[in-house]
Every structure is written in structure tokens, then in C-alpha cells.
Amino acid sequence: MSLDTIDLRILRELQQDARLSNVALAEAVGLSQSPCLRRVRLLEDTGVVLGYTALVDQRKVGLPVSVFVSVKLEKQREEALARFEEAVRGCPEVLECYLMTGPRDYLLRVVARDLADY
């Protein structure tokens, strides 16, 4: 899918506030409501918009500490990477996991109640 300037404005607005009503979104990007809704649906249907997410205040859910952890695997083979990623998926305290280049293989963002909990 080729994105034009209006599509990019729609994406920018949705990234700022994914709960915008179609009326507010259409007004913000300079379209009438029907074409705006059509474009949003097309962005969703083609996989440009993968989903919508709620941002949670870590402090209010008792997890105020974020720790960044770099991980080096013994070997960087596909099977080892897959096993590691599967293990990380089972850890709810790991919010983000990035495959890296350089001396380390992964960078994780882990949340915890405090450093002792980490």
C-alpha cells in the first residue's frame, strides 16, 4: 500500500490518541467523515495499523522500576534465538525484547516493584 500525506496525517493523529472519534479525526486531517473512516479501515485491513494499545502508568500498578538488561547468548543460531524468545514471552515482567547487533544479542526492558523484586 502506498501512503499519501493524508494517510500519514491519520497515522500521526492515531498515534497521538488512538481513541479519537472518527469525527475528531476527520476534522484534524481535513477530510469529511466517510472518506476518513474508509481510509482508517483500509489502513487496518492492509496491516498498516496493527492494533490499538492502552498505555499503563507503571507506578499506579505497582511496577515503578524499569530495568534494561542486555543478554548475550552462547550461540546465535536460529534455534537458540527462538528458544530464548519463547522463554521471554512467558515472562510478564519483560515488556520489550529487541534483537541487537554488536556484542550483545538482546536488550530487554523489565519492570519490577523495586530493585529487590528485580
Summary, kept brief:
The chain has helices at 5-16, 22-29, 33-45, 78-89; strands spanning 65-71, 94-99, 106-112. The chain is an alpha+beta fold. Strands 1-3-2 form a 3-stranded antiparallel sheet, with helices on one face.
Structure explained in plain terms:
There is one protein chain. With 118 residues, this protein is α+β, with helices and mostly antiparallel strands. The chain has four helices and three strands; from the N terminus they run αααβαββ. The chain has helices at 5-16, 22-29, 33-45, 78-89, and strands spanning 65-71, 94-99, 106-112. The chain has a three-stranded antiparallel beta sheet, covered by helices on one side. Helix 1 packs across helix 2 and helix 2 crosses helix 3. It is elongated and about 55 Å long. The termini are far apart. The mean pLDDT is 96.
Q: Could you give the distance between the termini?
A: 43 Å
Record the strand order, biggest sheet: 1-3-2
Q: What's the rounded overall pLDDT mean?
A: 96
Gyration radius from CA atoms, angstroms: 20 Å
The ordered string of helix (H) and strand (E) elements is: HHHEHEE
Biggest beta-sheet profile: 3 strands, antiparallel
**How many helix segments?**
4
Uncertain stretches of 5 or more adjacent residues: none
Q: Identify the overall geometry.
A: elongated
Give the amount of beta strand, in percent: 15-25%
Structural category is: alpha+beta
The portion of residues assigned to helices is: 25-40%
User: Strand tally, please?
Assistant: 3
